[in-house]
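Let's study today's protein:

:::
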Amino acid sequence: MRRRLLAQGSPRHLPPRRVLMRQGEAGSSVWVLIDALVKVSAGVENGTESLLAVRVSGDLIGEMAVLTGAARSATVTTCGRAVARQIAGGAFIDFLRRHPQAALTLNQMTIERLRWSNQRRLDFAGYEVGRCLARVLLALAGRHGRPYGRGVDLGVPLTQAELGGLVGAKEDTVQKALRALADRGYIAMPKRSHFVITDPGGLGEYADLPDEKIRPKPD
């Protein structure tokens, strides 16, 4: 099934910081990420921009605008060199019509993304910024983390401002919360945009997720 979908488009080799789609534009295609890490961001009328999500190799992006006919709801930008396949919207819709199993898989993917968004809203309502941040770090490491010494590399290069977008907080508030987590020994920040969870168990306890297990991908 995946091979048949990929056959609908051609591979594209993309440079870092390449915008694959822009918020507000018409959606005429979808992208399948082959070897890529991209950031999904959006802004509001006053100019405030927030990071909504990250997507990695194997993910599909751009399907919402193609399926609904609405404008793009977010901007997607590559974090580094990337390989992806761009598939025309008409070909993608026709593929779903001919392959009901693919449509079911797409529905399951959409539900999983909705669950992520709903969990973030619940976190915002129930916890202060430090614990919201801890919960997001654990969630990201669970999806994208890699072994790093005795800890877990987050697996995603994020600025403090982007982390703020994920937890609904200003950058200076996030800076204070990150310092507090580092002082407790839960995380380390070896360099800019690089976060390592050094004590997953401790961070899980602090985040009120004592049973959370991080299974990083092998190097």
User: Anything to note?
Assistant: The longest helix spans residues 100-126. The chain has a mean pLDDT of 91. The radius of gyration is 18 Å.
